[in-house]
Design goal:
The complex is a heterodimer. By secondary structure, chain A is of the alpha+beta class. Chain A has helices at about 5-10, 15-45, 50-55, 70-75, 125-130, 140-145, 185-195, 215-225, 235-245, 250-280, 280-290, 295-325, 325-350, 355-375, 380-385, 395-420, 425-430; strands at about 55-60, 65-70, 80-90, 95, 105-110, 135-140, 155-160, 165-175, 185, 200, 200-205, 230-235. The two termini of chain A are about 25 Å apart. Chain B starts with a strand and ends with a strand.
Chain lengths: ~425, ~220
């Protein structure tokens, strides 16, 4: 036997409690990772080269205020701009969707927007078809897959912000952009449907180079200063973050939820470790009598506490990585875990261990449902109805999970360590089992 | 006069319980010789367990001196005292106090984890200690798979495994039936007579005390002459 074996045997002496403690840490850390990933996805828009060249120009008053279409002539003359196109968010409800359509529809100028969507791969004949037909649209591959669309289909949208409905003919399917969900159609068709108001939602501009982009932004803002429609030009990243900020301070909200999760986790861990140590105070006194020093007992308690927390972190952290990276595999793994729990439940009930058996059953049911949901969704897009495209668990987040687990282990060990330090061998020996 | 292994002079222990002071030991002086099997007797609260705890270095006196093999254990700091206990004292308790998740072998091996002995040497020593108490064939049993008498014999093996000079036993037969108690007492007697260990045992039972080579009585913290 080694000291490590002794620590492991102690940690697992009450298997039910150890399992429940590990699972409570695992579930809480899974939730923490999920919140962190969600925050990252919301706060850090994809920043590829195309994105750093793109500049979004919107009405300075508010995003909801349109811009005059005549601004195009001015924009065309600003140095450093290689392409400019209207980008009007239509925000219609797609036929069949009841309350919310997860993909956006943008009215653009197909002749001008090519350089703005340089990442998009669209077959030349489909591009020609789009340019030729005013009522046509191109659709991102993700939306095509989700709604099982094909070339020639007609998409009907009910206007939510604009007082008109649209029917668009699918003539092209694009992919390769950071967000292959959107529908692009002719601005001229929207103008016509609205009675030619002479306005656009926003302008999308492509700067000649990354270095020149801030200068171009400045020039655009200055060009329309003191005009009847002052603009705010900003990088795509700043624009998206501004958009996110319209949902109130989501970062604060997520941070506060994370803190509450951690606080609850600390309470659970401290209570579990205190119970675990309290019930073997007498044994710790025996160890002291045998010659184990205070620091060795501290090390036992700390190792056990940190060990349980890190086991939870391994399951929670890598579970989150598995689920969000390989959702279908994660779903299957969870289904297998549920199957194991069902088998354990049957075994325990046969052995007349009622409480543990029922606990296993209660654990198996949600795990099975979660596994089925994940396996069916197959990806984060499917699971979130297209709200999230990527849900990347980064190494930093996994690092955070293990740091949290380490701190948690130390915090949970503090109270038992103090109690052990304060108790003499004789007092410990008098403790009832 | 035989060589004393324990020399106690004017040893007192006073417990403060709020404003009330309880004298557990009152200026006790005592010599215990090498190889002696001393039994400490007396009614509950007479101070016999307190005296045993101080000799074994798990409690401290209020005043006085307690030298074991010329080391004044009352002067050692906590860390040194822990090392001293590991090397010099074997403990046997009334309630056996084995670790329930460890096998008999592992329980006996526990004090050796603090030494620099290698795995093979530890194994030899543990097997020898278990063999001495007649439990060589039960080494892989958990405490719950052993009878009370067997558990206490495992505890004796644990007390012996570091080869201490001094073995302290606090009512070791208190939780045993008479047959098991006899077995345990015979082992302790053997250790004193054959192996030259000094055994100090607290007991209420005159039959158990009869196994000792000397018996002393305490009452209200004082030695009865």
């Amino acid at each position: 036997m080694t000291l490590a074996t002794f620590i492991v045997k102690n940690a697992l002496r009450n298997k039910r409690r150890a399992t429940l403690s590990i699972l409570s840490v695992a579930i809480s850390l899974f939730l923490l990772v999920t919140l962190q990933v969600a925050m990252r996805e919301l706060m850090n828009p994809i920043n590829d080269e195309g994105s750093s060249l793109r500049i979004i120009v919107r009405n300075k008053v508010s995003l909801a205020q349109p811009l005059p279409a005549r601004q195009l002539q001015v924009l065309d003359r600003i140095p450093g701009i290689v392409a400019v196109s209207p980008f009007s968010f239509f925000g219609g409800l797609y036929k069949g969707d009841e309350k919310f359509t997860s993909f956006a529809q943008f009215a653009v100028d197909p002749k001008r927007c090519g350089p703005l969507l340089s990442d998009a791969k669209l077959p030349p004949e489909q591009l020609q078809a789009w340019l030729a037909d005013r009522t046509s649209c191109i659709v991102g591959k993700l939306t095509v897959d989700r709604y099982q669309l094909k070339i020639g289909d007609r998409m009907q949208f009910t206007g939510q912000y604009y007082p008109c409905d649209l029917e668009l003919k699918v003539v092209g399917i694009y992919q390769g952009t950071a967000d292959d969900r959107n529908v692009m159609f002719h601005q001229s068709y929207l103008d016509e449907s609205l009675g030619k108001p002479g306005t656009v939602g926003t302008w999308w501009v492509r700067a000649a180079s990354v270095d020149e982009a801030p200068l171009v932004t400045d020039r655009i803002n200055k060009a329309f200063a003191n005009s009847s429609a002052e603009v705010r030009a900003e990088s795509e990243r700043a624009f998206v973050l501004g958009f996110v900020s319209m949902w109130a301070n989501i970062k604060t909200l997520i941070t506060r939820i994370s803190v509450v999760v951690l606080f609850a986790l600390v309470l659970v861990a401290v209570s579990t470790m205190s119970m675990a140590i309290r019930e073997r105070f007498r044994e710790l006194a025996i160890l002291k009598a045998l010659g184990f020093k205070r620091r060795e007992l501290f090390a036992f308690i700390l190792a056990e506490s940190v060990g349980l927390a890190v086991a939870g972190a391994l399951i929670g952290g890598f579970g989150a990585w598995l689920v969000f990276t390989y959702m279908r595999v994660g779903g299957i793994v969870l289904a297998l875990v549920a199957l194991g729990l069902f088998a354990m439940c049957v075994y325990l009930l046969i052995k007349r261990q009622w409480l543990t058996g029922i606990l296993a059953l209660f654990a198996a049911m949600p795990v099975a449902m979660l596994g089925a949901t994940l396996a069916q969704a197959g990806s984060i897009q499917g699971l979130t109805n297209g709200m999230f495209l990527l849900f990347e668990v980064t190494p930093q987040m996994l690092g955070l999970v293990f740091v949290v687990a380490g701190v948690l282990g130390v915090l949970a060990a503090l109270a038992p360590m103090i109690a052990v330090a304060r108790t003499s061998v004789v007092q410990g020996l008098k403790t009832l089992d | 006069m035989a060589v004393p292994i324990v020399t106690i002079r004017n040893l007192s222990k006073v417990y403060a319980q709020g404003e009330i002071q309880v004298t557990a030991l009152d200026k006790i002086s005592l010599d215990i010789s090498v190889g002696e099997f001393l039994t400490l007797m007396g009614p509950s609260g007479s101070g016999k367990s307190t005296l045993l705890h101080i000799i074994a270095g798990i409690d401290r006196p209020t005043s006085g001196e307690c030298r074991v093999q010329d080391v004044d254990v009352t002067k050692l700091n906590e860390s040194k005292l822990a090392d001293w206990r590991n090397q010099n004292v074997g403990f046997i308790f009334q309630t056996f106090n084995l670790i329930p998740v460890l096998t008999a072998f592992e329980n006996v091996e526990l004090p050796l984890l603090l030494t620099r002995l290698g795995g093979n040497e530890r194994k030899t020593r543990v097997q020898a200690a278990l063999g001495l108490v007649g439990l060589g064939d039960r080494s892989h049993h958990l405490p719950k798979q052993l009878s009370g008498g067997q558990e206490q014999r495992v505890a004796i093996a644990r007390a012996l495994v570091t080869d201490p000079k001094l073995i302290v036993a606090d009512e070791p037969t208190g939780n045993l039936d008479s047959n098991s108690a006899q077995d345990v007492l015979k082992v302790l007697q053997l250790l004193s007579r054959e192996a030259g260990k000094t055994v100090i045992m607290v007991t209420h039972d005159p039959k158990a005390a009869a196994f000792g080579s000397r018996s002393i009585h305490l009452e209200k913290g004082e030695l009865l002459k």
